[in-house]
Amino acid sequence: MKITATINESREMTGLGKTTIYKAIGEGRIATTLIGRRRLVNVESLRQFVSAS
To answer: How many domains is the chain built from?
Structure first.
């Protein structure tokens, strides 16, 4: 099981658009981490966001 995903993988998993995901990240509703220049989404945080919506 993956613990992080790229923005594109997050889009594929949820069916949400890039703008929606970035907006939720900006609002602090989806947790991410930066590794170098890559922003990775915490998969558990993504699941919680989708189930709450």
So the answer is: 1
